[in-house]
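Intended use. Records like the one below are meant for learning the mapping from a protein sequence to its folded structure. Do not use them to infer anything beyond what is encoded.
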Amino acid sequence: MYYLILSILSLYSLSIACFCKTFYRRPYPLSHKLLQCSGVFIVYLYQIFPILKNLFSSFILFNYENELIEKGLYWHLLQVISFILSGFIFIGRIPERFCPGSFDLFGQSHHAFHFTIFLMAYSQANAVFEDMHSIKSNLIQSIWIKDILYTIIVLIFQLITVGLWYRISRPTIEQRYKLQ
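Structure written out for the chain above:
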């Protein structure tokens, strides 16, 4: 059930991104960014909820299970912080909002956003590595084929979603460029 809901939310996020590309024009209003970020945030929040529960239990309630799990949770905490920071940078257009013209070529929010997303992915990979060390290896090997098949199925549905959005939005986009 977890994967099914995650898949539906990921298709929702993809549809929101396609909607935003179709119906919003530059300069993008704040509603565009909020809508685009909401789709990603909902998927991330649902995906990371079990980790957030463990983080709350370990760092707020001080309920440590063992040292290996705690080591992975520090990486997960860095991942969550990096994700939230990337959202603030993306929506707030930091730092060029505070110094317009100073960050046109280097150091703009787009660069900082990608850096924080890279930091999130790096932290997530290290956290998963630590998590895998803390559980039994035979459990991991028994479910990897099912996960790969499920991933391929979701990828096919996402490609179908992009194709449908292309067919839906093509007349709108063609009309927009004929008028200009």
